[in-house]
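Obj: model holo form, ligand = 4-nitrophenyl phosphate.
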Amino acid sequence: MIKICFVCLGNICRSPMAEFIMKDLIVKNNMINSFYITSKATSYEEIGNSIYPPAKEKLMEKKIFFDNKKKASRLEKEDLNKFDYIIGMEEKNITNIKRILNSNDEQKIFRLLDYSNNPRDISDPWYTNDFEKAYNDIYEGCKSLLDFFIENNIV
Ligand code: 4NP
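Output (holo structure tokens):
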């Protein structure tokens, strides 16, 4: 069982999109029993809040199932030992994740697009309002991550 926690600043836009896009990919690849997937925030801003409505709309448009009861929660120090992979959306998330977890474990903590052909940050649609770009970047990241697990016999 591979345990993954996706992480962004608020846990209402990018990391829940990554959570449900990855779940969709593993369902379609018949790997549902091989993964445990969730998502969390580095900040306390949105704790307890639902996925941001424009992010929900984008997931619906792309026919990605999501849990309407998903609520933002914060990454905590104990999560270091609970997950195999703790995956941020941008470099700022990585800095914050390493601080919260007090760890520099780069086998466990990295950016979603680090394993893609074009490693880069995923811009925050909370500020850019570009949910289509966020979706496409996150999809590319999740697909690259799944390919990485398969190619390296991790799953
Ligand atoms: P996210 O976007 O990190 O992709 O969930 C944000 C959502 C809310 C805030 C910041 C980023 N906020 O400051 O409330």
